[in-house]
Amino acid sequence: MDLGLRGRVAVIAAGSKGLGKAVAEELAAEGVLLVLCARGEESLRATAEGIRKRFGAKVYTTQADVGKPGEPDRVILEAMAQFGKVDILFTNSGGPPAGPFEAHTAEAWDNAYRLVLASVVEFCRAALPGMKERKWGRILNVTSIAAKQPVDNLMLSNSIRAGVIGFARTLANEVASYGVTVNNLIPGFTRTDRMVELAEVTSKKEGISVEEAERRFTAQIPMGRMAEPREFAALAAFLASERASYITAQSIAVDGGWIRGLL
Length: 263
Prior knowledge:
Layout: E1 9-13, H1 18-29, E2 33-38, H2 41-55, E3 59-63, H3 71-83, E4 88-91, H4 106-134, E5 137-142, H5 155-175, E6 180-187, H6 193-206, H7 210-219, H8 229-239, E7 251-254
Parallel strand pairs: 1-2, 1-4, 2-3, 4-5, 5-6, 6-7
Helix pairs in contact: 1-8, 3-4, 4-5, 6-7
């Protein structure tokens, strides 16, 4: 299927591995020019080189910590200097630390807010003017199943990722008339480094093996398995496409049926 994306420019945060890398590969296959940012310079370079070799795509990389004020804005400015525009914005970051309410200091709350919500706001503030001017844009935010159905021991993520959904839902209405769509992607339990981290935290907390912790996660999923990053990336590519021009203000889960709510 031709998604009509050839020649578009995408900024992909946390693009060196996991969900971000999978989305970068999916968009590269559609002829999208990529700007990848991540904290780890070595993994960023390796991912970019792999995408260039596999897809022949143009890939620009910049090391960035999106949880630091000013970094998302800098990434967008570099993207525009390199390719002249930003058509697709994929916001993403690592998750905040696991733990119950009393385990987190005021500083931890502030850091989680900056990483998860403030980074999205800053990315959008920098990218939106150009999208509105060109009357075309796609903003895709990675949240989590925790934003719709709280997950035990994820106080920070449960709280702040819900804020991303509220922000995006409101922004979608404000920019719809400019041909800009804003949607949230909600990954469930997916085979990424974040999943390994959560399994390790659960293992220590419950006194069980990491393998048993992973089995407990899988047991909650009606499909009986975790998602692969490429399955999540397929939705991202579609929502970024011309074919998804009438889909906005949505929060769509890729969770194998984990969320039990009706909406």
